[in-house]
Amino acid sequence: MTWKLQAITGEFTGQEILIDRDMLVGRHQDSDIILQSSEISRKHAAFLLKNNELWLQDLKSSNGTFVNDVRIEGETLIEAEDIVQFASLKFSVLQEAQKIEKPTFMQGVELQPVVVADKEEVKQAIQQPSEAIATSETAAKQEELTPAQQMNEQGMPDLKARDASVQVTKEGMPTNVGIPKPAPIPADVDLTAPMKREECEVEIPAVCVEEEKEAQKNASVGLVAVIAIVILAIIAFVLFK
């Protein structure tokens, strides 16, 4: 366990001093904690570590050593957050938190390894839909079946379940089955002659014919009237010029 001193007054205010062993406090250059002040004795006091406990001892200093504003003479036990004072220089005592040790595994307990699937296998399993997996399994299953078993899977009866009078070939096709003949072709039909395309006559209603004639007549009358007006305009222009 380690301890810290944090300066409260003087030129070292705010600074921290680590105490992890027995340390001498004083103005002498051989001191572990050197306090350059005329009121500090050459060998002022000493910090002592005993069984992770911090003790402070005054070394017959001129201006005294204090703990919580009480002057001490012999060894005094120091607690966390105590205020120690050398002459007029005050320090706060801090205690570092203990390090948490890592848990150790019990002896005799065997840890089972964790099997992690390959990343590519996981990726393919995610990308491949369940329908594709089912289709591939069905195809593999059909490849293992014989032709007769495949026919049974498709709903076709087994050869043994058929009529015994029906004989089949090696390919499984029935024999002695009559095939219907096509209808005879008439003798007067020439199969080599090109086929003629019959044209359909479309009969136009009489009303449509009359309307067409009336439209043509009106157009002719209108054209004649326009020509006459143009001629009259030319004659009038010549006479009155």
Automatic annotation (TrEMBL):
Coiled coil: none annotated. Residues 23-72 form the FHA domain. Pfam families: FHA. Keywords: Membrane, Transmembrane, Transmembrane helix. The keyword Transcription does not apply. InterPro entries: Cell_Proc_Reg/RNA_Proc (IPR050923), FHA_dom (IPR000253), SMAD_FHA_dom_sf (IPR008984). SUPFAM superfamilies: SMAD/FHA domain (SSF49879). The chain crosses the membrane at residues 219-240. This is FHA domain-containing protein. It comes from Acinetobacter faecalis. The lineage of its organism: Bacteria, Pseudomonadati, Pseudomonadota, Gammaproteobacteria, Moraxellales.
